[in-house]
């Protein structure tokens, strides 16, 4: 039966399909969406989240299926990813970052100091969000709110979208990272969907006294920038960053320190993340990202075998009694680095005193009470997706490994591996920072393929071109890196990154 208009409609549909046939998905999405995105900034490319419109039925699929489709679309969206090298970065417009007080890529820093005097102009009212979204200062002391944050991060705070593992951050871990001494609730900044109150975006900062060359500045250390997967590439990130910067400035703090695996304007330094299997068989079975079975299994097991017991005399868990001595040892040993966080007694206690399944610290204590070494690591679990036997993988991140002059740092680090294995960790992750290069190779760490870049917001200073010296939460860079080669540092960094990309 002809309802009139029916054939016309299907002809129209057919024409549209013909028009799109043969085009890459990216082109289709670009046609579907206008050049102005929902967060009010001009974007050059919009497609990734845009598939929600051509495929409205996507929402009705289970989350895992949606993620699979998203990944497939990622593969087709050529050129969408953030730059991983300075060469790639040189081709990006950085429409947001070029409006921010950060050094431009390729610029040679002349002098040191803040880039803009922003505190005075920090506006009172929050930045506007698109209709349907609202800001929320997360009250993390409320278990239900903490749980919401945990869900957001565990489902979305990941780069390795390859369906093997997903982060499984615990409440205790989040409290440790987000509530150090002097933390401020207003720096825990969330975005919710107004209709159902779902948390879909988050950015946080914690206060820290950061030493940059000869200056000590109270800064905001940025944590957990995260946008829900369904809202990616919609320019929510610039709004989150602007709002957090406003809140930070309202407290009279004008600078921030942060790390990212992507290249933004402009890295102060960069390091490579290394990993060292403890339970190789399991890592291979779950196809842990970056772990390859290059060696015959028996040889590999022998290669990574560790002693049964630790060897360093006087190695024991850190207690409250050690706080002041640990502080002094770190202060003395880190004085050679150009970028570092200065810790008070309270901060040493917070960041280093052992907390079950969060942070573990061991000290080397001589009979006379002198401390000659400290080693600490924090644990992060991941859920294993799609494996019958293994439900989770536990990764230990080396936080600090330092020993006084004459101390055996290699032995101390090996002992740390022995302890970590006995505690059931499957892998150890360490950056080539501080004095870690003294033991990484010897203890069979290998480059994981991942880089970490270090940034300062609203602070100009010469780039640190020797090895950066930090483990995730704290920043320390070698003093001898202040060098007349600063003009050449971008080239150097570029080469370093390029070589790595080639070798992975
Ligand atoms: C990082 C993340 C928030 C970016 O979101 P997105 O939807 O891809 O990006 P948006 O469209 O919202 O914003 C794009 C802008 O954010 C910037 N940006 C992207 N990743 C960034 C990062 N890690 N840090 C700071 N800025 C970043 C981009 O450079 C771009 O600005 P530009 O125009 O100046 O180049 C998102 O991918 C995410 O949640 N990833 C998982 C968690 C994660 O990796 N967090 C970062 C830890 S450092």
TrEMBL record:
Membrane topology annotation: Peripheral membrane protein
UniProt subcellular location: Cytoplasm, Cytosol; Membrane
Source species: Hippocampus comes (Tiger tail seahorse)
Principal location class: cytoplasm
Cellular component annotations (GO), alphabetically ordered: cytosol; membrane
Record Pfam families: NMT (PF01233), NMT_C (PF02799)
Source taxonomy: Eukaryota, Metazoa, Chordata, Craniata, Vertebrata
Record's keyword annotation contains Membrane: yes
Its biological purpose: Adds a myristoyl group to the N-terminal glycine residue of certain cellular proteins.
Catalyzed reactions per annotation: N-terminal glycyl-[protein] + tetradecanoyl-CoA = N-tetradecanoylglycyl-[protein] + CoA + H(+)
Keywords annotated in UniProt: Acyltransferase, Cytoplasm, Membrane, Phosphoprotein, Transferase
EC number(s) reported in the record: 2.3.1.97
Family: Belongs to the NMT family.
Highest rank taxon of the organism: Eukaryota
Molecular function as annotated in GO: glycylpeptide N-tetradecanoyltransferase activity
Glycylpeptide N-tetradecanoyltransferase N-terminal domain boundaries: 120-271
Listed Basic and acidic residues bias regions: 16-26
Region called Disordered, residue ranges: 1-26
Annotated protein name in UniProt: Glycylpeptide N-tetradecanoyltransferase
The Glycylpeptide N-tetradecanoyltransferase C-terminal domain, residue ranges: 285-463
């Amino acid at each position: 039966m002809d309802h009139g208009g029916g054939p016309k409609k299907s002809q129209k549909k057919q024409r549209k399909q013909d028009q799109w046939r043969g085009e890459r998905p990216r082109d289709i999405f670009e046609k579907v969406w206008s050049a102005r995105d929902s967060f009010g900034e001009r974007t050059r490319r919009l497609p990734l989240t845009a598939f929600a419109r051509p495929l409205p039925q996507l929402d009705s699929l289970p989350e895992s299926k949606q993620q699979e489709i998203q990944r497939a679309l990622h593969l087709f969206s050529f050129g969408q990813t953030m730059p991983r090298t300075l060469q790639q970065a040189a081709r990006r417009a950085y429409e947001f970052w070029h409006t921010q007080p950060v050094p431009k890529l390729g610029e040679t820093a002349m002098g040191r100091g803040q880039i803009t005097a922003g505190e005075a102009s920090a506006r009172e009212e929050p930045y506007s969000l698109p209709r349907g979204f609202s800001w929320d200062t997360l009250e993390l002391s409320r278990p239900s709110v903490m749980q919401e944050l945990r869900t957001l991060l565990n489902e979305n705070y990941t780069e390795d979208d390859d369906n093997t593992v997903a982060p499984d951050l615990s409440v205790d871990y989040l409290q440790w990272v987000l509530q150090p001494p002097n933390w401020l609730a207003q720096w825990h900044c969330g975005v919710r969907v107004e209709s159902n109150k779902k948390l879909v975006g988050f950015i946080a900062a914690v206060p820290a006294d950061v030493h940059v060359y000869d200056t000590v500045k109270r800064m905001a250390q940025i944590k957990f920038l995260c946008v829900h997967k369904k809202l990616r590439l919609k320019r929510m990130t610039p709004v989150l960053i602007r709002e957090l910067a406003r809140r930070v400035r309202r407290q009279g703090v004008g600078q921030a320190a942060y790390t990212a695996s992507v290249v933004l304007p402009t890295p102060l330094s960069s390091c490579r993340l290394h990993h060292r299997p403890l339970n190789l068989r399991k890592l291979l079975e779950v196809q842990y990202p970056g772990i390859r079975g290059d060696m015959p299994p028996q040889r590999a097991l022998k290669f990574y075998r560790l002693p049964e017991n630790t060897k360093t005399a006087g190695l024991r868990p850190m207690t409250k009694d050690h706080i002041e001595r640990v502080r002094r040892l770190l202060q003395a040993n880190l004085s050679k680095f150009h970028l570092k966080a200065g810790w008070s007694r309270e901060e040493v206690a917070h960041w280093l005193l052992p907390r079950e399944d969060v942070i573990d610290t061991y000290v080397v204590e001589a009979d006379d009470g002198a401390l000659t070494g400290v080693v600490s690591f924090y644990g992060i679990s991941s859920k294993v997706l799609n494996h019958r036997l293994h439900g989770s993988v536990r990764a230990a991140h080396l936080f600090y490994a330092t020993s006084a002059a004459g101390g055996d740092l290699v032995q101390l680090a090996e002992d740390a591996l022995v302890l970590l294995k006995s505690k059931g960790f499957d892998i150890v992750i360490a950056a080539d920072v501080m004095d870690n290069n003294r033991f990484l190779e010897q203890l069979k760490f290998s480059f994981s393929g991942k880089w970490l870049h270090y940034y300062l917001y609203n602070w100009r200073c010469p780039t640190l071109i020797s090895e950066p010296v930090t483990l995730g939460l704290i920043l320390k860079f070698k003093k001898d890196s202040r060098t007349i080669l600063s003009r050449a540092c971008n080239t150097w960094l570029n080469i370093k990154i390029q070589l790595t990309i080639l070798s992975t």
